[in-house]
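Allow me, if you will, to draw on your knowledge of protein folds for a short while. The matter concerns a single protein, recorded as an amino acid sequence and a row of backbone structure tokens. Kindly check, if you would, that the fold set down in the tokens agrees with what the sequence suggests. You will find the record immediately after this paragraph.
***
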Amino acid sequence: MKQSLFLAVIIAVNSFASGGTVFGAQQSKTETAITIGLKTRHPAIVFAGDELAKYLGLMAGDPGAAVVVTESSPKIALGLLSDFGVKVDGVADPALDDAIYIDVRNSKGVIAGSNPRSVLFAVYRFLESCGCRWIRPGPDGDYVPSRPVNKLSVQLKDKAANRFRGNMNAGTYSIDYILSKIEWNAKVGLNTFFNEFLIPKKNYVNWYSRKYPSQKAPEPRSDAEILAYHELLNREVKRRGMFLQAGGHGFNARFLGNPEIECDHEGTIVIPDEKLEFLALVNGERLKGRSPTTSELCYSRPDVQQGLARIVADYAEKRPEVDCLHFWFDDRSNNTCECERCRDKKPSEFFVQILNGIDRELTRRGLPTRIAFLIYQDLRWAPDVERFANPDRFVLMFAPSGRIYDEPYQLPPPGLALPPYQLNKNPGTRDVREHVAFLREWQRMYRGPGFVYDYHMVWYHFYDQGYYGLMEVMAEDIRRLPQMNLHGFVSCQNQKAFYPHGFPIYAHARLLWNPQSQVDDLARDYFQGAFGPEGALALEQMKTLSDLFSPQYFYRKSRAKDLVRPGDDGIPQKLSRVAEAVQKFRPVIERNLSRGHPAHQLSWKYLSVHAGMVVPMAAALQSRAEGKSKDEANHWKAVRQYVIEHEAITENVFDFFWFQRTFPGVR
């Protein structure tokens, strides 16, 4: 299968390389506007037409330079591949496979996609070929060159390599930010958003109530407001034709009678006395007092299985916009019920029984919702007996929690012996080979579609203050997905991961579309688009910081203190050079703070603020490596104060809540 087939890309004027120079007289008369017609009026295609008109108007400096019309002979027609009789190699299922086709010459022609969201992707790729760049979420994150738009020419045919390309909603943010992030996701070709939990209250509450060091006064939101935010986010995902995933942990709390809005990690769980019998029995006691996402049930009971199936189906029926609904067990391991009916079977046996019950209930109600099942924690061990009655209903989600990112995914060697399942005595898994071996066992009984759900940008990225070193493993992980018979990657990650820049999340999206892309090539393009003429210098500085911060060492030590690698003894010396590296780079930052496009200036401003943060942070980590706990504590206090003082600048690109969870010294 050809992953990318570029016919040609012809750009009439290379304004991007020249920094966006204004050319000549602007088009201003409606009668000379570029007319845009829609062959199919799906909401995502309507939105694509509006976006094309908006950005062409921004390029031309005239909102009327391009308009969407209903006439039969527009200059640029938008629609599905099938509307124009166009075929792209490798499109087995147009609803699932994203492919684009662009044939525009002198601002006349066709922009098409295999499905409505792909038409939107095609519009953004057309605009990129005309010099636009998507640097970070929000209107101040777009680079739009000033140029005439009446002679644009682009020819392009391309197909995404992976069907599942997205991320989930972890982090701390306002509704305005997360909506801008959904918009940015589409611009870089991500087709999936996972709005985890039944209603993700905690993400909004942590932001509006300032559950982190902040100078700002709390602005609490009511449950009704949180629910409205949730529904608005879902609508914006579907407006773009993207796959919407939802659910995960929390259905157990619903079974026990708790409201949906209290069923995330930090919700309040209430367990009535009459429902205690449904809880898992561990060490002779029912596990009362756990959180909504760590309350295990006695899964062998038919009334538990049937009740969960009804609750999941109720959610799917109430929210038909959800394409893929996740059903998971506990977020921790070794909490499995030890009653006589449960103790002699793996949790996965009951898991598949419940999943089959969910399928039956969805089928009875005529609901097409797909169900994602999770390979994670005690569910790593595949069932010996149970099998899916209707495999087409399900999608596999492989979550290799516990890996330390020293190496990419590795296929297990022949004969690798997996640890046997032991009731509530199961060790964690750090070795990627072992993780993949567990996946292989599940794939012996399930041969349907699946994707990876991994955690490179939940905690690890905070240790890599250049935001570059982590890409080596992430890129290779993506390239090895076909070897693991997986069809994409939905990243578990912080949404505000754009400080000091957004390259990792940008590269994640681009590599999922085309895994053969080279990280260095993607970096050159991103840094030029984000920082302008001296972007290459910014890139080299980020590479330097990634190396000096030694993120693999510190992340490994935070997760597995017994693991030592050659060169670990040189970490303090590396960190001691951070201050000098920052000082040497300061003149580059200073001369770019007021130069060029406003989006470039803002990128340099973030780099300037970041430079002030990494010096005390490096000192804190150096003290940690040297075992000087009092010095480390003092340096973390300095980091805390610095971040608070610059909160107004960084709050839309930096998740301080998750940073202080990663480094408790700044709390």
Observations:
- Confidence is low (pLDDT under 50) at residues 1-29.
- The chain has three domains: 4-159, 242-448, 530-666.
